[in-house]
Structure formats: C-alpha cells, structure tokens
Amino acid sequence: MLRDVQTAASELGVGQSTLRRWIREGRLPVVRLGRRVLIRPAALEKFLQLSEQPGKANRGGHGDPGDPGAAQRHRGA
Q1: Is residue 66 one of the residues assigned to a domain?
Q2: From the CB of residue 25, how many other CB atoms can be counted at a distance below 10 Å?
C-alpha cells in the first residue's frame, strides 16, 4: 500500500522535511497523484538498503556490545 509523506517519515523515524528533501534530491522515488506525494513500500525498502553503511553495531565505536571488555581495551586499559 502506498504511504504518504507523514506515514513514511514516521516509519523511518525522520521528520517530514527530511523526507521531502530526500524526495527533492531524487534519493527517494515517489508517485505523484495530483498534489499527493506517495511512496511505494518497495521504494522505502530499497532506500533503506542503499542507505545502510558497513560498520559496527555499537555507534560509540567501542567494538562488540556483547563483549564487555571491548570498551576497556579501547581505552587502553
């Protein structure tokens, strides 16, 4: 089912202005029906896949969050 900007932004956890910027930049394809801007679920999925970046799950950069010694080793202790 097609999603409007408000719904898609909510699903992605971003503001509507951010989503509209991505649309304007051509990063996210849309369907325009009159004044309505709609997004296909497949387009959202593809956008998310292309936006994925390789790296560690722990954004703090301290290694595997399942490894309690990772942060300590990172600090050089």
Answers
A1: no
A2: 8
